[in-house]
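Figure 3 (text version): structure tokens given as input.
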């Protein structure tokens, strides 16, 4: 038998030995019944193994991160910070005090300048818009001289107290050009209250007026403004005597306004 034959014999022998070897593994035991299980009760499922913990999801934008534990503060560092803050507060307080002092000075300067402006405005006189409004109001009040008794009295009172001599030119125009008797009489009455010498010429003019009430009121007002008396001009006085009174007033006024000779 050659080498080949020997190898074939060995392989066959090994296979025979493997097929004859008895099975040494023990048979599986049947499952034991659960002592706590009752007849007809469903058998509980076997416990599932615990799932592994999921890793923490990354923080989304805008989501608050968990707070880190506070670090202990060094007392010396805290004391130094407090000293720095106190120094800054003291410096700010000092600056505030300086500013308040300057503010008081500026407030005083502002008050002085405002007083100066008011003084200059008085010298300049009323503004055009204000003057126009004043004239309009004066004219409206004079127009009320033709109204009821109460309206006439109220208008005369306002002209005398609120506008005083500012109303004189318009009162003079009323005396010269208005035909309504009450309006003319009230105009003279207001001039009697304001005592404006600018009204003397027109009062002298109406001393020869056809209305005796106008003549008498004008004569009485002239006497109070000028402090002079040259006689009466009422209807009881003869026309030639009334003319003498008129002439006396004209002469007095001319003398009063005659230019004085230079010394």
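Below: residues designed for each position.
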């Amino acid at each position: 038998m050659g080498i080949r034959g020997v190898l074939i014999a060995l392989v066959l022998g090994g296979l025979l030995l493997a097929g004859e070897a008895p099975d040494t593994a023990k048979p599986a035991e049947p499952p034991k019944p659960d002592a706590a299980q009752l007849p007809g009760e469903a058998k509980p499922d076997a416990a599932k193994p615990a799932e592994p913990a999921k890793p923490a999801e990354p923080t989304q934008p805008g989501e608050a991160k968990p707070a880190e534990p506070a670090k202990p503060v060094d007392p010396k560092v805290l004391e130094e910070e407090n000293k720095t803050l106190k120094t800054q507060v003291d410096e700010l307080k000092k600056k505030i005090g300086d500013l308040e002092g300057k503010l008081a000075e500026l407030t005083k300067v502002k008050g002085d300048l405002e007083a100066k402006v008011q003084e200059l405005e008085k010298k300049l006189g009323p503004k055009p818009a204000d003057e126009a409004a004043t004239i309009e109001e004066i004219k409206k009040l004079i127009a009320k001289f033709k109204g009821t008794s109460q309206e006439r009295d109220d208008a005369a009172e306002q002209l005398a107290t609120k506008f005083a001599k500012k109303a004189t030119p318009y009162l003079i125009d009323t005396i010269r050009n208005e035909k309504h008797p009450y309006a003319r009489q009230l105009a003279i009455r207001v001039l009697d209250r304001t005592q404006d010498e600018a009204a003397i010429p027109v009062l002298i003019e109406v001393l020869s007026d056809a209305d005796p009430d106008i003549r008498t009121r004008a004569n009485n007002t002239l006497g109070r403004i000028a402090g002079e008396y040259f006689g009466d001009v009422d209807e009881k006085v003869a026309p030639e005597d009334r003319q003498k009174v008129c002439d006396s007033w004209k002469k007095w006024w001319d003398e009063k306004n005659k230019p004085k000779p230079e010394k």
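The radius of gyration is 62 Å.
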